[in-house]
Amino acid sequence: MKKVFIITIACFILFAGCQKERTTSKTSNLKSLQQQNNLLSNQLNQCNLQAAQLKQQVENLTFIRASVKAQDIYNLQQIKISRFTNFYDEDEDGKKEQLTVYFHPADDCGDSIKAAGYVEVQLWDLSKEGDNALLAVWKKDSNELKKLWFTGLIGPNYRLIFDVKDKIEMFDRPLTLKVTFTDYLTGKTFTEQKVIKP
Q1: In a 3-state reduction of DSSP, which class is residue 60?
Q2: Residue-level pLDDT at 75
Q3: Which residues fall within 8 angstroms of residue 97, CB to CB, at 6 or more apart?
Q4: % of the chain residues with pLDDT over 70
Q5: Residue 124, Cα to own-chain centre: how many angstroms?
Q6: pLDDT (tens digit, 9 = 90+) per residue, 153-195?
Q7: Is there a contact between 181 and 105 (Cβ–Cβ < 8 Å)?
Q8: DSSP secondary structure code for residue 53 in this structure
Q9: Burial of 115 (0-12, 13-18, 19+ CB in 10 A)
Q10: Whether residue 116 has pLDDT greater than 60
Q11: Coil vs helix vs strand at 154
């Protein structure tokens, strides 16, 4: 009888311990689910806020497109090469080894626009004949070009720097620089030339 009583008490203690573990596990799971629920609730609130902002943006754009023409917003008309575009001797060794090109896209009022696009720069020696006249061609895509926007005393410009030490032996005659810019928004292409005198 004593053995049965001891075994019964041991079973009750064991059962009570298991119940406590289950309760602790359920409490832990409940806290975890509550945290997940709070997180999802915050994400839902952010999504609702974003959706409301996007809806307002669509309404604004619908109104703007109905009443405003594209050329009223963005009217790129030309590119201008700055007078500071020239060959430079950067290391002061007596030889010009660098061509620095300053240019900017401009609207119909002549104001500079930092336009996204693609640029090709050509350097010509028109005193030479045939294929020998083209000395160099450099290209910059939109990703490169947007990092080259420069604002200084000469105003806002794209500043492109090219190594010419292997391209030009003597700076004894005029060279022609041709800059062609393709605007990504409108697809228009603009070209400007400048004669660089020795």
Answers
A1: helix
A2: 85
A3: 89, 90, 91, 163, 164, 165
A4: 83
A5: 31
A6: 888 999 999 999 888 878 889 999 999 999 998 889 999 999 9
A7: yes
A8: H
A9: buried
A10: yes
A11: coil
